[in-house]
Write a structure and sequence with these properties.
Helices cover about 15% and strands about 35% of the residues. By secondary structure, it is of the alpha+beta class. It has three domains: about 220 residues, Immunoglobulin-like (Sandwich), CATH 2.60.40; about 170 residues, C8orf32 fold (Roll); about 200 residues, no CATH class. The longest helix is centred in the middle third of the chain and has 15 residues. The radius of gyration is 29 Å and the shape is globular. It starts with 16 loop residues before the first helix and ends with a strand.
Length: about 625
């Protein structure tokens, strides 16, 4: 049984000497494999106490960390940053105590903590606050106790507590408390299979759920893991904004729509704008409205207090000419509404971040808003007017296969953004000519790379400023990263969100094999995505492969005709080689496949076969 944390009055008391001795003793139990890490967590305790009042609900949140500085690293913990969000909570109370190896101690007083607006994405946030705590005499073997107490006025934005975090942790406790007359939806997910001690208890006044994990490795934050919420162990909870029970997705959507309904009211200016769209076809109207918002409303997040979660009125966004994602989506919705075209706002989460889980409805797992048009051409489409380089048929590509909370009165639901027929696939075509450079006899390759559909959408943002210079770093970086081409010179012949064409010249002497009569190893260009996509390094969680169609061709010098190949036939991908005179061709088709950790051997097997497939050699006669 894990002991529940007890909420005491918010009167600061330094840690008892007995507690300090217990924490110092924990240092001896640090695993050997962790001892190269500069900072470790000896203990981490989280307690969430949910309470209901007549008008609204709230939650008290307390977390206490015990840090140990194993090795001095000025970039880690010589200062501590703690963030809070004014729209969902009051300013947090923080206490920091430092215990030095020589036995001296230091308590950081509240007036030594700097508090200011956070600076994100080159803008000052008007709602996200940063609390900066500088640690005096930062040194090895010191202990730090940091405690933060928060009061959430909008508990629906609290959604999950994970056991693992930024640092290795010897022990973590999570406790959730709520009144016994409240029906709360909470789930423990542990697909990674951690050894967790869990317990539940109930008294006349309180229910409790408790988790405890020991010797928890830090999350691999350097890895880009798709769907991390489905892998990492944690406590997911749906705290109702009002009432005595957790809400369903439909009820949560209705509650949020009621909050934002004043923002979705039309105005004479919006009516005039809608009337200026003279097109009569639904698809053309949606395209014109989308283009207007995309080109005339500048993205700017002014998230002051309630406007962090509630969009400003659509009429205000039109008048000011700027707004954030939810405000741009809301304005587009009202314009389409004036044209008689139904649409619904949709909450989503950026790729690579933790999403919500289907069984626990919450608002806290979303960080972006787009628009859903249920009948476009006539199939449905998601629109994101914040994507300034996209259009109506591809602006949603960055959200593909992410969950979407579609907000429709009485019918709000959680779904998945599936690409429409014929959309969302990465298409790549390369053509290369191999010849010997006349001046020095080096072998050289000249070629073009054509990226289409999702491949162009993914890469175009990196190339928008590329003007076709011979040594443009963006183009060179793209070819090296995505195709393992090390170019001597590059040029960008065409670029838009639908198609990008890059010309290149590179030295390929290292691909020339001097065996018998000599030959070429045809592995450049490689498969789109490069080593980062097809790495054999073991990763946590499921492995996700995305759709790709790639066709490559090489025109060879005279005399190179004997092709030595290995075909590829696998559930994840297939590939074939062909030859027509001096032209050798390669086709590669990658399917969208999610391989769970229990079947990781399948990924390993595929990657071995893929590597063998790519090692085709053409020999001189």
């Amino acid at each position: 049984m894990i002991p529940a944390l007890v909420f005491a009055a918010c009167i600061y008391q330094p840690p008892a000497s007995k507690t300090v001795l217990i924490m110092q003793a924990k240092v001896d139990s640090i695993p050997e494999s962790w001892k190269d890490d500069p900072v470790l967590l000896l203990a981490d305790s989280v307690s969430i106490d949910f309470n209901r009042s007549q008008n609204t609900n709230s939650a008290a949140y307390r977390e206490c960390w015990w840090y140990y500085v194993n090795k001095r690293n000025p970039s880690l913990l010589d200062f501590i940053e703690i963030y809070d969000y004014e729209f969902v909570e009051t300013a947090p109370q923080m206490t920091v105590d430092v215990m030095y190896p020589d036995g001296t101690t230091k308590s950081i007083s509240p007036w030594e903590i700097q508090r200011f607006k956070s600076y994100d994405d080159r803008n000052y946030s008007s709602s996200k606050m940063k609390n900066l705590i500088s640690i005096p005499k930062y040194q090895e073997k010191m202990l730090m106790r940091v405690e933060v107490v928060r009061h959430y006025t909008r508990p629906a934005y609290l959604s999950v507590e994970y056991l693992r975090g930024e640092y290795h942790c010897l022990q973590k406790n999570i406790t959730l408390l709520w009144p016994s007359d409240i029906q709360l939806n909470c789930r423990i997910l542990n697909n990674e299979g951690l050894e967790i001690d869990t317990s539940r208890s109930k008294t006349d006044s309180k229910n409790a759920v408790m988790l405890q994990g020991e010797k928890l490795k830090k999350m691999p934050l350097d890895q880009r893991l798709r769907y991390p919420e489905q892998w990492f162990a944690g406590l997911h909870v749906s705290l109702p904004p009002v009432g005595k029970r957790s809400l369903s997705w439909q009820e949560l959507g209705d509650n949020y729509l009621e909050q934002i309904s004043p923002s979705l009211v039309s105005s004479p200016e919006i009516k005039k704008l809608a009337a200026s769209i003279s097109d009569t076809g639904r698809e053309a109207i949606v395209r014109k409205a989308f283009q207007f918002v995309q080109k005339n409303i500048r993205y700017l997040a002014d998230e002051e207090k309630m406007y962090a979660i509630v969009p400003r009125p659509a009429s205000e966004i039109l008048a000011k000419g700027y707004g954030d994602c939810k405000e741009m989506a809301a304005l587009l919705k009202v314009i389409l509404q004036e044209k008689g075209i139904p649409s619904h706002l949709a909450l989503v989460t950026s790729r690579w971040k933790f999403q919500v889980i289907d069984s626990v409805p919450v608002l806290g797992g979303f960080d972006h808003m787009i628009l859903y048009v249920p009948a476009f051409d006539p199939s449905p489409v998601f629109l994101d007017p914040t994507v300034d380089y996209g259009h109506v048929k591809n602006s949603y590509y960055h959200c593909m296969y992410q969950k979407a909370f579609i907000l429709e009165k009485g019918r709000s639901r959680l779904g998945e953004i599936i690409p429409r027929d014929g959309e969302g696939k990465s298409i790549v075509k390369t053509r290369s000519i191999i010849d010997r450079f006349k001046n020095n006899g080096f072998w050289e390759m000249q070629g073009t790379v054509v990226l289409q559909d999702n491949a162009a959408f993914l890469t175009y943002p990196m190339l928008k400023e590329a003007k076709g210079e011979e040594h443009n770093p963006a183009l060179i970086g793209l070819l090296k990263t995505m195709f393992t081409i090390d170019p001597i010179s590059v040029s960008c012949n065409q670029q838009c969100a639908d198609s990008v064409t890059i010309g290149f010249t590179c030295n390929i002497n290292k691909n020339y094999l001097k065996i018998d009569e000599g030959g070429f190893l045809l592995e450049v260009p490689s498969i789109f995505g490069g080593p980062s996509v097809f790495t054999t390094i073991k990763r946590e969680g499921p492995r996700v492969f995305e759709q790709l169609d790639q066709k490559d061709s090489w025109t060879l010098p005279e005399g190179f005709a004997e092709l030595e190949i290995t075909p590829l036939a696998h559930r994840i991908a297939s590939g074939a080689w062909g030859q027509d005179g001096r032209v050798v061709s390669r086709t590669f088709t990658l399917n969208r496949v999610i391989v769970p950790p229990s079947q990781s051997e399948e990924s390993t097997q595929f990657l071995r076969q893929k590597d063998n497939f790519l090692k085709a050699t053409v020999w001189q006669k």
